[in-house]
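Input.
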Amino acid sequence: MSVPVNYALVVEDDRSWQQILAEILSDSGLSVETVGNLEDAIFELKKKPHRLAVVDLSLSPNDHNNLDGLKVLEAVRKLDPNCQAILLTGFATVELAVSAITDHGAFTFLRKESFHRGQFKELVYRALASAPHSSTSDEMQNTVTHQEIKVGIEHPSAKKENGKGKVLVVEDDAGWRSILQELLSDAGYDVRACCSYGEGLGYLRREKMVLAVVDLLLHNSMSTLWEQHTPSEDLEGYQLLASTRASGVPTIVVSGVASPEEIKRAYAEQSIYAYMEKQAFDRVSFLKFVEEASRSNLALNELSVLTEREREVFDLLAQGMTNKEIAERLVITTNTVKRHLKSVFEKLDVHTRSAAAAKSPGKLV
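Output.
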């Protein structure tokens, strides 16, 4: 029985890059075709199915505003839907990177200035592993969709010191890590970015974070999940949620793989602040969640000065209860309620019930 041929398409107008990419893809066991423009790419996509396409964003050497690569991604999605596409670019804004992945169906994007042969080989392997190339892969595709990969692009904002506090980003796909870093840094946060459970846990133990952004499916857990049906609680990202919860750090999950049951479990058991799917990622919504979660964390830190009983009184006050209602709920006298409220007001440096209630985390979002 003949071995099926797996084809890869390189869409790149630079011959040097064509040669580099073709060599790596050939070493990965793929039969490689190279083209240099949109028209030839569409022709090849119509001619035969491909497992992988590596597409340069700009396909005109004299026009840096050329975005034909995005048109190629659209053609891949329509003409060869089982083909995974990697966008290669010499420049990329956050908006463009997000658009390539969420709007145009790219598996991920890779910056040329950060290109590394070994990491690109790993990227190719993982893209092929997630490509739905035959009916035998249907079961696995239902379990693992849109696998995210580690490319190793570090954003210059990683070392930037900002004033809103430190945010931990744990994401093994360097394209997404770069997107999240840039958005958070531009919003005024000091970002600590890493790609594994161990690194993330180390940051949590060494530094005080106001927020964490975590991908559920990290690199090491991906291979485990690929080989066997691993419970979600055993995934490294899920284990990290337990650590952020124990540290009192509000957490936003930005992930490409999770069933509705796993999402519900993350909310119920790990008290995540929000869950966002990479396929439907919206930067405005993300930044809104970030601001709400960080404000909520600041409020919780401020409330940490209260005793357990004072916090109970405060929470009921924030719900709009009167002193009498609070006393009945807690089975104490109204004078005791007044005494606790006086202490609460002093510790929070407020003078009215409404000012105290405004400091409730629920009032800040």
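Residues 133-160, 220-230 have pLDDT under 50 and may be disordered.
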